[in-house]
Design a protein that fits this description.
Oligomer: homotrimer
Strand content of chain A: 15-25%
Structural class of chain A: alpha/beta
Distance between the termini of chain A: 50 Å
Order of helices and strands of chain A: HHHHHHHHEEEEEEEEEEEEEEE
Radius of gyration of chain A: 19 Å
Helix content of chain A: 40-55%
Number of strands of chain A: 15
Largest interface: A-B, 41 and 41 residues
Shape of chain A: globular
Strand order of the largest sheet of chain A: 3-6-9-12-14-15
C-alpha cells in the first residue's frame, strides 16, 4: 500500500513519529481499517467508547462500497488540488477537513438507515473536535476537498456535487424563514472561497467559482464567478466580459 | 421530565446510546444537575478536575434562579427556531452553541461575584472546546439561540437582548482603538446572520436583521435590515421600500 | 518572575485555581519551561506522548534565542494591545491565539531543520485543538497579537512582519490557481480586522489597516486602510481624503 510506504519513510526520517504512525497507519490491513481506527480515536470520549465507534465505523466502511469509493476520490482530490499536501499519508493524518468529511460519510449512511439520534451525536462530535458542522442529511458527492475546514457549516437539505472544493469558513445555509428544502445545491467542480456564505435554496452551476467572503443569495450560472457581499456575477467562460 | 422521556425513547431505538444517555440525561434528577454534569465533563482536563467544576456549576445553578429561567428559555428558543432540532434532548446533548451559552451564564455569574481569574479560565476552556469566545463581563438576555456557533466572539462590554438569534462566525467586537464601553448593544429579537461582524459601541434596534457576512459599523434602527460590507440599511416594516 | 507573582496572587484570591496554577506556572523555573509544559499538555493525545512533546518543545526553546525573544515580545503585545487582557499570566494560560502562535514558532523551527512530517503533525494538532491553522513554512515576526484566533489560516508562503495584530477568522490565503510563492506579505504594524481575507501574493504595507470582513485582492500601500468586499482603499496618513 502506497500510504504505508509513505508512513514507513516518514518514520525512518523521524523516529519520534514511530508510535503515532504505527497506531494510525502501519498496523492496519487496509485504508478503511486505518480510517475507522483514526476516526474512532478522535471522536471517542468518556461516555462514547472507542470500541463501540470503531465497530460502527468499520462496519459502515465494509458494508458500503459507495463510501469506500468516495474516500479514495477524496484523498486524490486533496493531494492533487492542495499544493501544500505532501503525501496521501499526510492527508489522512493531518487534514481535519478530510477527517470530518469521511466521518460525515459514515453518519450520513447511519442517517439514511434511520438511525437519527446516533447520526446527530456523531455530527455534534465532529463539530466539537474539528469545528466542521455538516448535517447528516446533507448530500455530498465524491472527490471533495475541504481545505483547512474550520467553521464550515452545511445544512440539512444542501446538495454538493462531485469534485467540489470548499475552503474554511464556508456556509451552505438556510434563510431561517422556513423549514423544508431550504439549502443550496452546488454543482460539480465548483470552487467556494474562504468565508463565503451561500444562503437559501439556490443553485450554483457546475464549474462556477464563488470568491472569498462572497455572500451569494441568487443562482449562479455554470462556469460563472460570483464575488462581493451581496454577490454579483462577474463573467463566465462563454461571456468573458465581466459585470464589474 | 419530557427530556428524559425523549432520551429513553432514543435509547430504545438505538441501544448503542445507552451509556451516553444514562451518563448525560437519564441518571440526573433535574435539568440543572444534568447540565452541570455535562459542562463539567466537557470542560474538565488534566489540571482542572471534573469534581471541582461540577460542584462549582451545580452550586451556581442551584443559587441563581435567573440562570435557571434563562436555560429553559434558551432550550425552547433552539427547539422552536431551528427546524433541524429534533428534540429538547438533542439540543442539550448536541448543540455546542447551547452548551457554550449555558457555560457563559455560569462564568458570567462568577465574574459578577468578583471571581475574575476563574471566570476567564472558563471562558478560555469554552473557546478551546467549543470555539465560542464570550467575555464573562458581556451581558446576554434569555431565549438566545447560538446556531452552529463556531467562531462566535462577543466582547467585554457587549449587551445582547432577549430572544436574539446569533449564527456561527458572528463577531460583536470593538474597534481596537480604545478601552471602556466599546462593543455593540443588540436589541430584543434581533437576528444576526452567519459571519456578520458588528463593530464598535453601536446599537442594533429590536427586531432588526443583520445579513450573513454583513459588516455593521453604524446604528441599525429597530425592525430594519442591514446587509453588505460595510453594511447599508435596506428597508424596514414602517418603510418597506429598500435602499438597494 | 512577575508572572509567578500574578499567579500566586490569583491563587490566594481563588484557591480553586491552585492545582491549575501550580501545574502551568508556579512549578516551573522559567517562562520557556512553563510554555513547553503547557503546549505539550494541550497538544499531547493517546498516540502522541506528553513526554516526547515536552522534550521536543523544551529543546527548541532552549536552543533558539530568536524564539525566546519572540515569545517575550508576543506576551507584551497581547498585554499592551488587548484591553481585555488582565495580566501576563492570563495571556499565557487563557489566550489560545498566543498558545497557537508559540506552538507555530516551535514547529516552524522544526520545519526549517528539515523535519517536515513532524512539523505538519504539530500544525494539524494546533488546528484541531485551537482552530488555528498556520503552515509551518510561513514566516511570522515578533510581537504579534492573535486575538480570539478561531478560524485563522496562514498559508505556506505568507510573511507577517513584526507587531502585526490579527483578529479571529483572518485568512492569508492563496488564489488556488498555482503553487509556488502564492500568499500575502504583511508589513510591520499592520492591523487585520475580524474575518478579513487577504488573498494572493500581494503586499500590505507597514502600518496599513484592513477592516473587518474585507476581502483584499490588491496591494495596500503603507499606512492605508482597506475595507469592503472586494476591498477598496479609503485614505492614508499622507492622503487623508478617502476614496469612498
Amino acid at each position: 500500500m502506497k500510504i504505508q510506504q509513505e508512513a514507513a519513510h516518514d518514520v525512518s526520517d523521524e523516529p519520534l513519529l514511530s508510535k503515532h504512525m504505527h497506531a494510525f497507519i502501519l498496523s492496519h490491513g487496509s485504508l478503511e481499517e486505518a480510517l475507522a481506527f483514526l476516526l474512532a480515536t478522535k471522536l471517542a470520549n468518556t461516555n462514547l467508547d472507542f470500541d463501540v465507534l470503531y465497530e460502527l465505523f468499520w462496519d459502515a466502511l465494509r458494508s458500503c462500497a459507495k463510501i469506500r469509493s468516495a474516500i479514495c476520490a477524496d484523498i486524490k482530490a486533496v493531494k492533487d488540488r492542495d499544493p501544500a499536501c505532501l503525501s496521501y499519508c499526510h492527508c489522512i493524518l493531518n487534514y481535519k477537513g478530510f477527517q470530518a468529511c469521511e466521518a460525515y460519510r459514515i453518519f450520513h449512511y447511519l442517517w439514511v438507515q434511520g438511525r437519527q439520534p446516533l447520526a446527530c451525536l456523531l455530527q455534534s462530535r465532529v463539530a466539537e473536535v474539528f469545528a466542521v458542522d455538516i448535517h447528516p442529511a446533507a448530500k455530498i458527492g465524491k472527490g471533495v476537498l475541504f481545505d483547512h475546514a474550520t467553521g464550515v457549516v452545511i445544512g440539512e437539505t444542501a446538495v454538493v456535487g462531485d469534485n467540489v472544493a470548499i475552503l474554511h469558513g464556508v456556509t451552505l445555509g438556510g434563510t431561517g424563514k422556513q423549514g423544508g428544502d431550504r439549502h443550496p445545491k452546488i454543482g460539480e467542480g465548483v470552487l467556494i472561497g474562504a468565508g463565503a456564505s451561500i444562503i437559501g435554496n439556490i443553485r450554483v452551476g457546475e464549474g462556477a467559482k464563488v470568491g472569498a467572503g462572497a455572500v451569494v443569495l441568487i443562482d449562479v450560472p455554470p462556469r460563472t464567478t460570483a464575488v462581493g457581499c451581496p454577490a454579483r456575477l462577474v463573467g463566465s467562460r462563454t461571456n468573458p466580459s465581466t459585470l464589474k
